[in-house]
Amino acid sequence: MATTMTSVEEAGRCLATPAAYTDEARLHEALALLRREAPVHRVETPGYRPFWAVTRHADVLEIERDNELWLSAPRPVLRRAEVDAALDAQRARGGGLRTLVHTDEPEHGALRAVGADWFRPKAMRALETRVRELARRYVDLLAEHGGRCDFALEVAAHYPLHVILSLLGLPESDFPLMLRLTQDLFGQDDESRRRGAGAAAHTSVLADLLAYFHELTAARRARPTGDLASAIANARVAGRPLSDADAASYYVIIATAGHDTTSSTIAGGLEALIRHPGELRRLREDPGLLPSAAEEMIRWVSPVKEFMRTARADTAVRGTPVAAGESVLLSYPSANRDEEVFGDPFRFDVGRSPNRHLAFGAGVHFCLGAMLARMEIQALFAELLPRLAEVGLDGEPAWLATTFVGGLKRLPIRYTLR
Fold this sequence. Notes:
The chain is α+β, with helices and mostly antiparallel strands. It has a single domain (8-417), classed as CATH 1.10.630.10. It is 49% helix and 12% strand. The protein has helices at residues 8-14, 24-37, 57-65, 81-92, 107-116, 121-143, 151-156, 159-168, 175-186, 199-222, 228-233, 244-275, 277-285, 290-301, 332-335, 370-384, and strands at 40-43, 51-54, 70-71, 148-150, 236-237, 240-241, 306-311, 315-317, 320-322, 327-331, 388-393, 398-399, 408-410, 412-417. The chain has a 5-stranded mixed β-sheet, sandwiched between helices. A 3-stranded antiparallel β-sheet has the order 4-14-11. Strand 1 (40-43) and strand 2 (51-54) form a beta hairpin.
């Protein structure tokens, strides 16, 4: 892949530049340069604490699997230094967000067990009919838009939200609020989405989410209703009830990450099919490719851009020393285009097999909702593709400025339905 990057330093800074994720070609140019010339690269850039960028699939996988050496706490994701400081101070006071993403073993395993049964194969089979019904409902909505719509906003943003909030047991009247708060949370670096600039805006979004879920916890403890929210509210860990803060944090990760990542994959998957009409035709002609196509969409989009890990002890990654207390950034878009693992990695291939992408992570932090996400993606495209006579772009797509979670925020399409 040709590069116009002037240095690995410039490429490394892209990982701490939210706007870099709005230009897919430029981003992957930077990541390819890092993989080739500096797969473990120290990034120092204004506004962020230093970190090591890890861009090769093998290294990301090894770090993910070694949860004894590499810890999620105290820096699970890349944030501006002022936001890190504000959240650290909040946690020191016993408040703030503390989800599965933030915790390490043995606490992580105990917390994960609270919701695990709701995402196992038996539970997914019970949910499959409902997911298919919702997929049909949202494809039906396309008929109401007269052949033109913003697919990212009108379909992709709402369908997975409906699925996960129904699983939690939230009323449909609250869905718009959850969508807005999720977009506020993950859009903090995007000028068109963010609530405001600086740490105060970020902590205010978290405060609103936690306040909503504190109320939900109290309601489900008083009157359990047999849904996932009730299971979380009334869970016991090591013989003790979850604290209000831990219960609210659990809801936040389920309700936000549980739909936003799938939304990004669905929108990005359709965009990939539009830009690769041969693959769209191939998938139409052989619906049996839907499972592999869904995996390829997940690899292609890589909606989670990074997680961070902090070294418990002095170590080395690919021969590069990393001191105890230093943090690494695991770049999933880079790992999922690694030439050492994927043949022709910049080709969108609905039949790719094997597909050893790391979009769901690995090890103890493997995505709790991976099976649900796969089901939702397959159900939506199983409903959509037979009904699409024609589809194409109706303007330029736009990506979210982010360094954490995101994808297309706009996907204008024109289409004809059968």
